[in-house]
Amino acid sequence: MADIRLASSSVRTKNKFQPSVENLVTPGDVITSDTCFMRGHGTYTADDRLHASVAGVVERVNKLICVRPLKTRYNGEVGDVVVGRIIEVGQRRWKVDTHSKLDSVLMLSSVNLPGGELRRRSEEDEKMMRHYLKENDLISAEVHSVFSDGSLSLHTRSLKYGKPVSCGDREVIARMRNCILALSHHKMMLFDTSILYTYDNSLKFSCKDILKPEIMNEVVEMTRLRLEQETL
């Protein structure tokens, strides 16, 4: 005979990695009155009982009990790559909002100078700080160190950090790349004039359409005719 069971009689196995409702606490809730447990983050002791100091999920590691907050600010560590927004230009430093508990700091000595020049920062560089980065600019940076109060010191000394490339700049780069591919596909010489003419001829088409065979042929042929006219 078939073994038929009611759904109510089946036993469900709880995923031990998924926090249950029973483990949720709010500030002031009693977690345990057993004094053999150690107090961890998000807890405090009162009247020989362990209480939650934040709203979150109770986690236990051996004899250590802590409460992981449901919502918290970013706690940075050395080597983290962060995206932040400049909120203030100060004396030889920028204040950066990285969604952490305290504002992060980007020192003038921790950024690349234009052209990658390596030298000590001068008073002239300090006057040009707002030219490099100003309020509301987005930057990517790496956490260089963590101060004793938990605030972060950032740096952008690598070329992969700094201000993100704007949408307009990305489109120019993509169009230039497609023009070079079109010239190469038609076995045309690559030099500054041919690339510039091809770029100008491609402006009436969208960037993604340049590599379509019929449009590529038209753009390159216009470039070829223009170059031939100059040699006459």
Automatic annotation (TrEMBL):
> Where is it localised?
Cytoplasm; Nucleus, Nucleolus
Q: Does the keyword Cytoplasm apply?
A: yes
The Exosome complex component N-terminal domain extends over 24-61
One of the entry's Gene Ontology molecular-function terms is: RNA binding
Q: Does the keyword Transferase apply?
A: no
GO BP annotations listed:
CUT catabolic process; exonucleolytic trimming to generate mature 3'-end of 5.8S rRNA from tricistronic rRNA transcript (SSU-rRNA, 5.8S rRNA, LSU-rRNA); nuclear polyadenylation-dependent rRNA catabolic process; poly(A)-dependent snoRNA 3'-end processing; TRAMP-dependent tRNA surveillance pathway; U4 snRNA 3'-end processing
GO terms under cellular component: cytoplasmic exosome (RNase complex); nuclear exosome (RNase complex); nucleolus
Can you give the residue ranges of the RRP4 S1 domain? 73-145
Q: Which InterPro entries match?
A: Exosome_cplx_N_dom, Exosome_RNA_bind1/RRP40/RRP4, KH_dom_type_1_sf, NA-bd_OB-fold, S1_RRP4
For this UniProt record, the keywords arranged alphabetically read as follows: Cytoplasm, Exosome, Nucleus, Phosphoprotein, RNA-binding, rRNA processing
Q: How does it assemble?
A: Component of the RNA exosome core complex (Exo-9), composed of EXOSC1, EXOSC2, EXOSC3, EXOSC4, EXOSC5, EXOSC6, EXOSC7, EXOSC8 and EXOSC9; within the complex interacts with EXOSC4 and EXOSC7. The catalytically inactive RNA exosome core complex (Exo-9) associates with the catalytic subunit EXOSC10/RRP6. Exo-9 may associate with DIS3 to form the nucleolar exosome complex, or DIS3L to form the cytoplasmic exosome complex. Exo-9 is formed by a hexameric base ring consisting of the heterodimers EXOSC4-EXOSC9, EXOSC5-EXOSC8 and EXOSC6-EXOSC7, and a cap ring consisting of EXOSC1, EXOSC2 and EXOSC3.
- Which protein family is named in the record? Belongs to the RRP4 family.
Q: Write the protein's name.
A: Exosome complex component RRP4
Q: Which organism is it from?
A: Octopus sinensis
Organism lineage reads as: Eukaryota, Metazoa, Spiralia, Lophotrochozoa, Mollusca
